[in-house]
Specification:
Radius of gyration: 56 Å
Order of helices and strands: EEEEEHHHHHHHHHHHEEEEE
Number of helices: 11
Number of strands: 10
Structural class: alpha+beta
Strand order of the largest sheet: 9-8-7-6-10
């Protein structure tokens, strides 16, 4: 740098700053002849450029340079790590939002599918009803046509040629058409002509089921009410159908119960293992059993409710409250007929570990 002040004795001379400034207003300048002077900043030209050049070319000791480089590297790594975490966080947020949108779309599609499925079921039920009505209408027309044909046939032929044959043929034709109209149902007229051979209860059950089927096929309210009275249920299709399903189990229930009762030495537990499966129709199958069978069931139940007798394996105590063994625990290990051998817990460490007692001298042990 050059001294630019005209009043300075070294005006025009150039020098170099080799030492740090003592303050912000002056610089220590070394000239070519070796002289070092403290000169004001205002008396120097090119001071700013020199300061910048010196600061840019400033060197540090090796250990400081390495520390500075390490700090810069750590700073750079930290910036890269923060940038990567930010990028990952943004990607995760975007993925979560996308996943939520996909889940919402799937839920909406599922709800739409469910609604469409319910609508399809309702439409199918309605179509089935219309198809059933259409078939009934066609069958009704066929029946009317057949009746008209038979009436014309009667008018065209002399009555003496038909006789009983006319009645038989007409009955057969009508029965055939009725069976086709009530396919897979029970014929009420056949029940009236020849009831089931087993019992009247079975006849009523079959008649109720037949009326139920007839009410469903013909949409007949009176038949529905009659079926409800016979089957013992509410006069609704659902209640009658449920009751009919119960009664369909009745023959199998009676067969299973009679089979287990016929076994020699039948116990209450064996009977109950079978009967509990048909508990919902207990009143129905009970009415079908004979008096001997119901008496046997009652006897089995009473026997099962009686208190157990003391036997081998029973945990007992002495029955006499004045004996010390009244509060002690023992186990019956042997049955000698009139007497029982009891091993006492309190005698385990003694030479005598058991003793003999009559049954009435013992009681079932109860924790104190």
């Amino acid at each position: 740098m050059t001294v630019s002040s005209l009043s300075h004795p070294r005006y025009g001379d150039s020098g170099v700053i080799k030492a740090d400034a003592p303050n912000n207003y002056q610089q220590i300048v070394t000239f070519s002849d070796g002289e070092r002077l403290l000169i004001n900043n205002a008396d120097l030209a090119g001071l700013n450029d020199a300061i910048v050049s010196e600061s840019s070319e400033r060197t540090y000791p090796k250990e400081y340079s390495e520390a500075i480089a390490q700090i810069k590297e750590q700073h750079q790594q930290e910036l890269e790590r923060l940038e990567q975490e930010l990028r990952i966080g943004l990607q995760a947020e975007v993925s979560a939002r996308a996943e939520e949108q996909v889940i919402e779309q799937i839920q909406s599609l599922q709800n739409l599918y469910k609604q469409q499925r319910e609508q399809n079921i309702q439409l199918q039920e309605r179509l089935d009803e219309m198809e059933g009505l259409r078939k009934l209408e066609i069958e009704n027309q066929q029946l009317q046509q057949r009746i008209q044909e038979l009436e014309r046939a009667v008018e065209q032929r002399p009555s003496q040629e038909w006789g009983n044959i006319m009645t038989q043929q007409a009955t057969k034709a009508l029965n055939k058409q009725v069976k086709q109209a009530l396919e897979k149902t029970i014929d009420l007229r056949s029940l009236a002509a020849e009831p089931p051979k087993e019992n009247a209860q079975e006849c009523l059950r079959l008649m109720g089921m037949a009326l139920k089927n007839l009410a469903s096929a013909m949409n007949n309210t009176q038949a529905l009410e009659a079926a409800a009275i016979i089957l013992g249920s509410e006069p609704t299709p659902t209640a009658i159908a449920y009751r009919a399903e119960q009664l369909e189990m009745l023959p199998q229930a009676i067969s299973d119960i009679r089979q287990v009762l016929s076994k020699p030495g039948c116990t209450w537990q064996e009977f109950w293992n079978v009967a509990q499966e048909y508990e919902v129709i207990k009143q129905d199958y009970w009415a079908e059993l004979t008096t001997q069978e119901t008496d046997l069931i009652t006897a089995l139940q009473n026997a099962s409710s009686q208190p157990d007798t003391i036997q081998v394996g029973s945990i007992v105590a002495h029955a006499d409250p004045y004996r010390t063994l009244y509060v002690e625990r023992g186990e019956v290990v042997e049955d000698l007929g009139e007497e029982l051998v009891v091993a006492w817990d309190c005698w385990k460490e003694q030479s005598k570990k058991a003793d003999r007692y009559f049954r009435d001298e013992l009681r079932f042990w109860q924790p104190q």
